[in-house]
Amino acid sequence: MTKKLLAVILSLVMVLAFAACGKEESKDTNTSDSTEVTQDVVDNNTDDTTQDEVVEVGDDNTTEEQPSASGSDTVAQTLLGEFMATIETTEDLEAVANTLSSSETLSVLGMMVMPVEEGWLNGFDEEIAGFTQGYTFSPMIGSIPFVGYVFETEDAAALVETLKAHGQLNWNICTTADEMVVEASGNYVFFVMAPFSLDE
Amino acid sequence: MKNRKSAMALSAILILIFHFWVNVFPGNDVENFIKLTAYIGVDMFFFLSAYSMAGREVDNYLKFIVSRFKGVYLKYTLFVILDAVLISAAAWSFSRFLKALVWVELFKKGGGAFLWFLPAIMLFYMAFPLLQKADQRNPVVTAIVSLALWAVVAFLVTRFTGYKEMFIFWNRIPIFLLGFYVYKLDKWIKGFCIRNEAQSLNKNEAGRTEAREIETVRNETGKNADSVRDRGISNRMAVCVKLVLAVVFVAVGAFLLLKFGYKIKLKVPFRDMFYVIAIPMSLGLIALAGFVPSVKPISWIGSSTLEIYGVQMVIGYNIAKAVMKYTREPLLVSLLVILPVIVIAVVVHYLYGWIEKKR
């Protein structure tokens, strides 16, 4: 009798779960497949009039409301805004990385900043080259799906393409970041992979 | 398997290191290598689970599955409820809750699924009796077909789809199969050594005298002195072989991990092939751990691995946030996160066991 009851309960739960598949709620922010959205943004503040903002977001093949569309910026977008503001005031890349790592948005993570060189970088499936200077800002705890970089480069467009091509949202094996944001501003490139929100 | 709890404890500690260790020497390659390859603790678990199961004769499939459900799925459900209702309620919707309970989340998110290892190992347990039955009929064909099935599915999914979430458990099939077959090999080796020694004892007068003495001891003590004696002799041979093999496997495994499972991870011919590359290192570490006596603390940790996994995922990050409010010293952060997780998990494990006994 107990076994039959267990079987019925499990069957019901399974039916409900599959029925719920078609109704993804916006709170369920971890997703698996990815699609890519590219926007051209005109920058009035630098000589470089064309910037590519590459935002790769999770898409579970269902209509899912992205946090930015609903009015509140994601973690990566917030940091991007702070990067754009900071890079206009200083060309000291380490200072930029430190500013980003001490952002209010990342205060829960316990961040650390380290210089990086061309070669293997955390978050990518191939070695990364094409920059003259770089810093990473990332949580002390590696299981959090967040990694950020700022680079100085002589060919920002090429570096953006390289980062976009080799960034892996699931670099962390057991966890997956929700989005990847890559943006160039002059000779400086910003790269972040992060969850939409760090509130959980 | 001698000192199996030591191997289990090592596996659990490796996973804790992978999730929560903070580099004490940033940029140090050795520390980085250990931390970033500590995911092989999961591979060790798959091997040890299969090895443990292989010794069981599954007469009744339903009874076996129910026992696995009680041992694994029930605890998994409790952790899901705890996280969804109390700890991280903001991250859970009702649909996610249901999907986690029936393992749909595992297929949708792979390693990003909540406590993914538990539903994955349940799937393996459900297939295990079939493997055992097939092996009893024809071991060679079973081994070949199992591996072929794994490889064909992995190839087809890699080649024709973009689906990657399944590989975190699909590519653990080889090491699970290894666990099953290494158990059989171990059993055969022990039997061989016992038979060999029994023959040697009868070859000369001294041997026959010794055999009579063993028989006397058996009659007086009631213990099976033959097998006690033979076990001692066969164990010494097995120990030497295992030590040499362990060192070789660790050395080869470290090289393979360094090349294909560390920074740049092997993804050919199938996705996430680096899990297969991790096999030699996993086997080597399990073999080495077998030399570590399962003293009480190690035994406690080795018995509480499921709870350690659950506790670290449910509250490990919250502990880390709390610790980092007071200190950012890497070693302190690592220890103040990992040790409490272990202690809490061990308490939960034995408390659960006590409640089960009282029922």
Helix and strand arrangement:
The complex is a heterodimer of chains A (200) and B (359).
Chain A: H1 2-20, E1 34-42, E2 50-58, H2 75-87, H3 93-101, E3 111-116, E4 133-139, E5 147-152, H4 156-166, E6 179-185, E7 188-194
Antiparallel strand pairs in A: 1-2, 2-6, 3-4, 4-5, 5-7, 6-7
Chain B: H1 4-20, H2 29-37, H3 40-54, H4 61-87, H5 94-101, H6 104-109, H7 117-137, H8 139-160, H9 167-170, H10 173-201, H11 205-221, H12 225-260, H13 274-277, H14 279-289, H15 296-303, H16 305-324, H17 330-358
Helix pairs in contact in B: 1-3, 1-14, 1-15, 1-16, 3-7, 3-10, 3-14, 4-7, 4-16, 7-8, 10-12, 12-14, 16-17
Structural class of chain B: mainly alpha
Distance between the termini of chain B: 31 Å
Shape of chain A: globular
How many strands, which pairing sense, and closed or not: the largest β-sheet of chain A? 7 strands, antiparallel
Percent helix among the residues of chain B?
Answer: over 70%
Oligomer type? heterodimer
The Cα radius of gyration of chain B reads 23 Å
Largest interface: A-B, 41 and 48 residues
Strand-pairing-aware structural class of chain A: alpha+beta
One letter per element, helices H and strands E, the order of chain B comes to: HHHHHHHHHHHHHHHHH
Q: What pattern of helices and strands is seen along the backbone of chain A?
A: HEEHHEEEHEE
Count of DSSP-assigned helices of chain A: 4
Radius of gyration of chain A: 19 Å
Q: Runs of chain B with pLDDT <50, length 5+?
A: none
